[in-house]
Design goal:
Layout: E1 4-8, H1 16-27, E2 32-37, H2 50-62, H3 68-85, H4 91-104, H5 108-127, E3 130-131, H6 149-157, E4 165-168, E5 171-173, E6 179-181, H7 187-198, E7 202-207, E8 228-230, H8 231-239, H9 250-256, E9 260-264, E10 273-276, H10 281-286, E11 291-304, H11 314-324, E12 338-344, H12 345-348, H13 352-363, E13 367-380, H14 390-400, E14 407-410, E15 416-422, H15 426-437
Helix pairs in contact: 2-3, 2-5, 3-4, 3-5, 4-5, 6-7, 7-9, 11-13, 14-15
Length: 443
């Protein structure tokens, strides 16, 4: 039987009304057999996240301070959900036991994992599903990567094709059996692991937006949603700062060739965005770019030296200087007599003068300076390599808008064109490129 893994984020399980929507979504497709849930999210702007309250509880115990006040907020939240859903189970008793564990000094990871744990316990009861604790199946290595045996262990636990399972997101266990959490947003990772472990045909990630948008909605008013995007495209957009999908959640399903669909819990009729290994022929023919993403906060170290191309190891020595000071680079545009290294400004950590002096002494450039306050903007798309005139369209649009391009770089895959501009022109650049490629058209 084909099975679908569905993961619901914090906004989707924030209260009883949202959890009723979860039940309706699960029951709408008999293939939705494996449900992964986050801790209840914020119901309004002034409310603290439940996970933040758990962090606070642990910190207060560590400082020998009474955590009763924030813990009561947590208990009240689960009590309210239980009452409104008409659930009578042992979760509230377990909460009291957890409070005793907390006061005795349980680990930080165990403490913050309880938001997902109790959320899943309640939702499993409400759905009449079987609860699965990932601490018994997902093994997290010391570097927070997932041990491959986790797929086998969890797959064996999810072996009943007809059974509905509910799994808490965000955590597993280490080799010593201690609960270990993922990074924030880690419930996406749990969903991807479950999809691969169960051999799912699809991983649906339900949230509060109707898919991934082609540009930042803080800059573009109502940007078009993306219908279909590849794993490679989404990696490029995430790298360039787009808030799309938890980066570490891509790998488990990408390796197994399992597509992801981003859906809206509050608008289940919307098609959302499908993340796929390869674009359909129709999508390739009908679109020029997947999206436009970018971020601020870059500096560029610029060197010029005549005949530097004849100096063996010139670039090697330059990067060696950066490595010596723990500075990593983002982009590396070059020409025959010049080279530039683009780094995040926070990487420099006040090392500007030190780096310039060492570069000047060791490489003897004709010209050397640092240009600050740059922004990078990427136009991303698998179809760009097959489409004539993409670069021309980029430069023509920016030229017409009077935007000065400081940097141009295109990856070897020809899947993106990266433009460097002054931070003051960042928003105008994104807007201009969006209008040039999208305008009012849907992708």
């Amino acid at each position: 039987m084909e099975r679908i893994v569905v993961k619901f984020g914090g906004s989707s399980v924030a209260d009883a009304e949202q959890i009723r929507k979860v039940k309706a979504i699960v029951e709408a497709d008999h293939r939705r057999k494996i449900v992964v849930v986050s801790a209840p999210g914020k119901r309004h702007a002034g409310e603290s996240k439940l996970t933040d309250l758990l962090y606070l509880c642990h910190e207060m115990v560590a400082m020998d301070t009474d955590p009763t006040e924030p813990f009561q907020l947590i208990r009240n939240r689960f009590t309210e959900i239980s009452r409104e859903l008409g659930i009578e189970n042992g979760v509230l008793t377990e909460l009291d036991e957890f409070q005793e564990d907390l006061l005795r000094g349980c680990s930080r990871d165990y403490t913050v994992s309880r938001g997902e744990y109790f959320s899943a316990r309640l939702i499993a009861d409400y759905l009449g599903a079987e609860f699965v604790d990932p601490a018994n199946a997902i093994i997290v290595r010391a570097n927070t990567t997932i041990a491959r045996e986790s797929y086998r262990l969890l797959g064996e636990r999810l072996n009943d094709q007809e059974q509905i399972y509910v799994i808490p997101g965000f955590y597993g266990r280490d080799r010593d059996g201690e609960v270990k959490t993922f990074s924030r947003g880690g419930s996406d990772i749990t969903g991807a692991i479950a999809a691969r472990a169960a051999g799912a045909v699809l991983y649906e990630n339900w949230t509060d937006t109707s898919g991934i948008l082609m540009a930042d909605p803080r800059i573009i008013d109502n940007p078009q949603p993306i219908t279909e995007i590849t794993f490679r495209e989404i990696r490029e957009m995430a790298y360039m700062g787009a808030s799309v999908f938890h980066d570490e959640a891509i790998l488990p399903v990408r390796e197994a060739g399992i597509p992801i669909r981003i859906r809206n819990t509050n608008r289940p009729e919307d098609p959302g965005t499908m993340i796929v290994p390869k674009l359909s022929e129709l999508e390739l023919k009908s679109t020029e770019v997947a999206g436009i993403a970018g971020k601020k906060g870059f500096s560029m170290i610029c060197l010029e030296k005549s005949l530097m191309n004849r100096e063996t190891g010139f670039v090697y020595r330059l990067l060696g200087i950066l490595n010596e000071h723990g500075v990593s680079f983002e982009q590396f545009p070059a020409s025959i007599d010049s080279v530039s290294v683009i780094v995040e400004e926070q990487q420099l950590r006040g090392l500007d003068d030190v780096l310039l002096e060492q570069i000047h002494r060791q490489l003897e450039p004709d010209s050397l300076y640092i240009e600050k306050n740059l922004a990078l903007v990427a136009v991303v798309g698998e179809g760009m390599v097959r489409t004539v005139g993409i670069a021309g369209k980029v430069f023509s649009a920016l030229g017409s808008a009077g935007i000065n391009i400081r940097v141009i770089n295109q990856g070897a895959s020809e899947m993106n064109i990266i433009i460097g501009v002054a931070e003051s022109e960042y928003e105008a650049t994104v807007t201009t490129l969006y209008d040039a490629f999208v305008g009012n058209r849907a992708r």
